[in-house]
Amino acid sequence: MSRLVVKVGSSSLTTPDGHIDPDRIGTVVDAVARARSAGDEVVLVSSGAIAAGLGPLGLRTRPRDLATQQAAASVGQGALVEFYGRRFAQHGLRVGQVLLTLDDVTRRSHYRNAHQTFAKLLELGVVPIVNENDTVATSEIRFGDNDRLAALVSHLVHADELVLLSDVDALYTGHPDLPASRRIEIVGGDEDLAEVDVSRVGSAVGTGGMVTKVEAARIATAAGIPVVLTSAALAGEALRHESVGTRFVPTGKRRPTRLLWLAHASETKGRLTLDDGAVRAITERKASLLAAGVAAVDGTFTAGDPVDLVRLDGTVVARGLVNFDARELPTMVGRSSHELVELLGPEYEREVVHRDDLVVL
Ligand SMILES: Nc1ncnc2c1ncn2[C@@H]1O[C@H](COP(=O)(O)OP(=O)(O)O)[C@@H](O)[C@H]1O
Ligand SMILES: N[C@@H](CCC(=O)OP(=O)(O)O)C(=O)O
C-alpha cells in the first residue's frame, strides 16, 4: 500500500469556456478510485476553482485582479467539490474539502493541525480534495500555484509519491510544440535539468506552466519523495505505477515541512544583515542567531515571518522564521542577551532566529 498525492491542473479539469469538463475529471476520479480499491491512499490536490468559476459568472478570460479571481474561485470551488462528491460517490467513496493557506504549512501550530486533519481523513477512508484557500488568500499569502502546494502537502502527509497531472504527457527538453523538443523519461537531479527549457507558458487557464511543476518536483525530491509528471489522460497508468511520463528520483532526505517551505519560499518579508561571527555561527556551528550578531534590519515583518539572513556584502546565506517584529529589532541589534534582559525585560532574551527555524542555503 502506498500513500499518493495526485495534483491535477486547471487545464485538465475545465473547458476553455470556463466550465467543468465531466469526461476529463471523470478520468481522474476513476483512476483515483481504482488506486483506492487496490489499497493505496490518495490525497487529490485539485486546481480549477478559478477556471470553473469563469463560465457561471459569464467571464470570458481569467481575471487579473485579485477580487474577481477570489469571487470566481468561490463559485468554482463549490462547483468542483460538488462534482467530485457526486463522481466519487459512484465508486462508494466520500470526499472532504481541505483549503490551505501558506500559514498552514509554515506556522508550527497550524501545520501540526493540518497534519492531524489529513491523518484522520485518510484513516476514515475519505479522499481529501485540496486547494489553496483562494477566496481569502491575499497576494502576500498565496502559495502562488498548486504545484508547490502539492509538493508541500506530499511532505506534510508523508507521501510515498507525488503525481503531477497536466495537459502534457511528460517533461520535454523544450516546449512540446517545438520539433526539436525531446521527451525526458527520468530526472536524477538538477544536472539533468540544466539544458531543459520550461520558459514558454502553458495553457490560458493554468498559472504555473512547467516552471512550477519542475520546482515542485525539486522540492519533493529534495525531501525524499519521488515524483511522476504526466498527463491527466494517463492518470490510470500513472496510478497503477506503470512507467509513464517523466520520473524524478529522490535527491535528499525528509526534513520539517516548514523548513522545506522556507528553503523554497519565494517571498521573504525582510532581511537581517549578520556580522562575520554570526555567519560562521549559523553556517558552521548550526547555532541560533542572537541579536548580538545582527548588524542591520530591513523590511516590514512581524514575528513568525520568513526573512533572509545576509552577509555584510549582501549575499544571502540562510532563511529563517524571525522571533521579533521589525520595529522591535533596531534597539536590540548588537546587544548581548544579558544587556537585552537588563534594558528591555526577560522576554527579549530569546534568539532572533532559533536554529530549528533556520535553513542554510
Ligand atoms: N519543457 C516543457 N515540457 C513540457 N511542457 C512544457 C514545457 N515548457 C512549457 N510547457 C507547457 O506547460 C504546460 C503545462 O502547464 P499548465 O498549462 O500551467 O498546466 P496545469 O494547468 O496542468 O498546471 C504544457 O501544456 C506546455 O504547453
Ligand atoms: N488555486 C487555483 C489554482 C492555481 C493553479 O496553480 O493552477 P494550475 O496551474 O492549473 O495548477 C484555482 O483553483 O483556481
Automatic annotation (TrEMBL):
The keyword Oxidoreductase does not apply. Substrate binds at residues 47, 134, 146. Keywords: Amino-acid biosynthesis, ATP-binding, Cytoplasm, Kinase, Nucleotide-binding, Proline biosynthesis, Transferase. It catalyses: L-glutamate + ATP = L-glutamyl 5-phosphate + ADP. Pathway: Amino-acid biosynthesis; L-proline biosynthesis; L-glutamate 5-semialdehyde from L-glutamate: step 1/2. It is found in: Cytoplasm. Catalyzes the transfer of a phosphate group to glutamate to form L-glutamate 5-phosphate. This is Glutamate 5-kinase. It comes from Aeromicrobium camelliae. The gene is proB.
